[in-house]
Amino acid sequence: MFNTNGRTNKVLFFYLPITLMFMWTIFPIYWTINTAFKHEGDIIKRPLEYLPTSPTVENFVVAWNNVGFATFFKNSLIIGITTVFVVIILSTLSGYALTRYKFKGKGSFLLMLLSTQFIPRAMLIIPLFIIFKNMGLISNPLSLIITYTAVEIPFTTILMSGFISNIPRELEEAAAVDGCSKLQALRFVMFPLLLPGIVATAVFTFIYTWNEFLLALMLTNQQSKFTLPVGLSFMMGEFNVNYGALAAGSVIALVPAVILFAYAQKHLVSGMGGAVKG
Amino acid sequence: MSTKQLSENVKAERRFKIDNWIPYLFILPSFLIIATFLFYPIGTVFYYSFQNYDISAPFYNSFAGFDNFVKIFTEDKLFFPSLLTSLKWVVSQVGLQLIFGLIFALLLNQTFRLRGFVRAIAFIPWAISGVLASVMWSLMYNEHMGVFNDILMKLGIISEPQAFLAGTTSAFISVIIAELWRGIPFFAITLLASLQSIPEELYEASEIDGASKWESFVHITLPHLKNTIVLTTLLRTVWEFNNVDLIFNLTGGGPANSTTTLTMYIANLAINGSDFGYGSALTVISFVLLFAFAIFYLKITRYERED
């Protein structure tokens, strides 16, 4: 654009904006970590400390033991892992049916999956509360596992069918010729090749369950059954907020999601490409 | 082709009986769980919207006809203001997320050292929950310990600490900024994926033709991104309209309902649990509005699938 002064332009139109972008993204995370490692007195001290002068893990101990983040963490983990397990099995099966078979009602089923993407989740909070109340499952992790499975399956089925369509059909036929049953072919031929797709789907599902708030809030009314987001929200709403412990709790909630996301983001993007293509 | 086709036909014949049932068996669990826990509840929302339904006194529940709907349009002092707040919320979120998402994507599409690392960082907010983001931003907005007050005072922009979440205008802006932080990466990711699919030759050809960078942006990049932009803005509109996590935790809809969107209003009603029928009627209205919007939007943008 402005060839006369390339270096200035590079600074002005590239290095400056990308530095700002980086700062904008990282700063809230940095500030939370910074707060989590400060002594309680140092958090409100003026002038503000941009680096903790005497870092402490005290807040983490308080959040984990006294506030109940150990319990919230465990609840989120149980719900997340169980949901992932169920979602993977169900979406692999239905993704497989969609990719490898022609059958009556296939189009309608696909339309059913797609139309769920336009259902506002807020629409679900009232009826699901009533349904699970009638089933006696309020404050039972099962209600969240079922709900999250239902919400996630449409997308993960489409994601899985994208991954499955990338695997050549001939491999299964070869297995059938070798005397494998359909299920054996699935287990020993498809499964290993599908593993990257399964991992991406699992991470995607796990992060969703780890982060979901409104349904978890609605379907849980005992503190011992809170998930991490509900626990954080509850702590924020307290009259006397312990900011150090709140920040520490946030870091506890942050780490697993961010590590998993960083690990799987490339697979996830390529999987979405496959899903669109397939 | 013919021998392969033939052997496949023979095989297909042999497996005919079981194979006919396999796809249905495979989709059955997914079908049942979606039907029971997504479609059935949606149906009941429509049913409840015509009822007086109080969860604490279920024996007094009765058919209400259109009473709930009439009440919403005639008596409800929160309905239209919250609809307007929803509109402001959605337009500013989607508009700004699109603009900054595009800027992020264009920056991240350049070649530079540490690109993989910077990309991974730039996408992180996408993996962070609304509740977590609201904790992070509330720590920064805080009147007593917040870093924004510290920075603004050091820069001489303000003279004493502000309670950003306590003023009606500043609370709305604060919530907008925090949600932007979380929302931009979604656009950045989808637009970056789309940018990477533009053939390099197109740019080379336009450079030979003497087009400026701006001209090739307008004539090559933007048209290529159109379908992605149309789809992602539609998805985000629906999503942001229904999104309450951050508002719920940062302001709870306050102060003085200045951050109460329609969905926030419904969530408050649902959580208080007093009149599910009324809440359901509001939910039905918001669903109809969104649905009408989606159809209208796809029509005016003339969205077409790429072949």
UniProtKB/TrEMBL annotation, chain A:
List the source organism.
Sporosarcina ureilytica
* Protein name stated in the entry: Transporter
Locate the transmembrane regions by residue number.
12-33, 77-98, 110-132, 144-164, 185-210, 243-264
- Tell me the Gene Ontology biological-process terms attached to this UniProt entry: transmembrane transport
Cellular component (GO) terms are: plasma membrane
Which keywords has UniProt assigned to this entry? Cell membrane, Membrane, Transmembrane, Transmembrane helix, Transport
Q: How does it sit in the membrane?
A: Multi-pass membrane protein
> Which residue numbers delimit the ABC transmembrane type-1 domain?
73-264
| InterPro entries in alphabetical order | BP-dep_ABC_trans_perm, MetI-like, MetI-like_sf
Cellular localization per UniProt: Cell membrane
Give the UniProt family note.
Belongs to the binding-protein-dependent transport system permease family.
From TrEMBL, chain B:
**Keyword Nucleotide-binding: yes or no?**
no
Cross-referenced PROSITE patterns: ABC_TM1 (PS50928)
| Cellular component, GO, one term | plasma membrane
Q: Where is the signal peptide?
A: none
This chain belongs to the protein called Transporter
Q: Name one GO biological process term.
A: transmembrane transport
UniProt family annotation: Belongs to the binding-protein-dependent transport system permease family.
Please name the source species. Sporosarcina ureilytica
